[in-house]
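Quick illustration for those who missed Monday's session on complexes.
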Amino acid sequence: MKNEKLILIVEDEEAIRTGLVDVFVYHGYQVEFAEDGAEGLKMALTGRYALIILDVMLPSLNGYDICKEIREQDKSQPIIMLTAKTADEDIIQGLTLGADDYVAKPFSVAQLVLRVQAVLRRSFDTVGSSVIQLVGGKTIDLINYSVSHDGIETPLTRREVEVIEYLLKYPMRPVSREELLSNIWGYQPEMAIETRTVDIHIAKIRKKIEQNPKNPNYLVTVRGAGYKMLTPHSDTRT
Ligand code: CA
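Prediction with calcium ion bound:
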């Protein structure tokens, strides 16, 4: 059972860990922490945390492996990764394994708090329930977070499902990156967040659902306006 106010911080650097604990306690959260990867994973798998902040470089088990293990058990556990490096590959690897967001070190604590609040605002929302059959035999299952094709299942992350669901809600108009950031990630315009997170998610969804991700048929770009999701048949389950 999740405690909506309880955050787990897995970070081996004492100065950062202590600073984070203090700041989240100050903002009214309860905080537990781990200094070591294996210990952090063990705590994370209890499923008690509203949100988990995961450092990447940790003793005994790194943040990516922890994220992967958590996702195997709980697809909807909110996770924010603290990445030391800003290389795209690292960010993409983190998001591929299902983190909801990443913050690159060195980061502003105020910004991390805003991102945590944004993720938490979204996290207790219910997920819609529908199955979409695409031409060419692919099926998007928004209940079970997967795309299947010829008997092969590719998992979707919670964020990817949320993006698809949001686009499906507005089939008649393009949805801008800013609108997705605001409504899916919960960011406000004054937070001046870069929109690359949206682009990475769109690219990853296309890779999973499109026959040719470079020339998409379903998740299309409307130049200068945003994205649209076109579906041939939608079958909504209740
Ligand atoms: Ca570290």
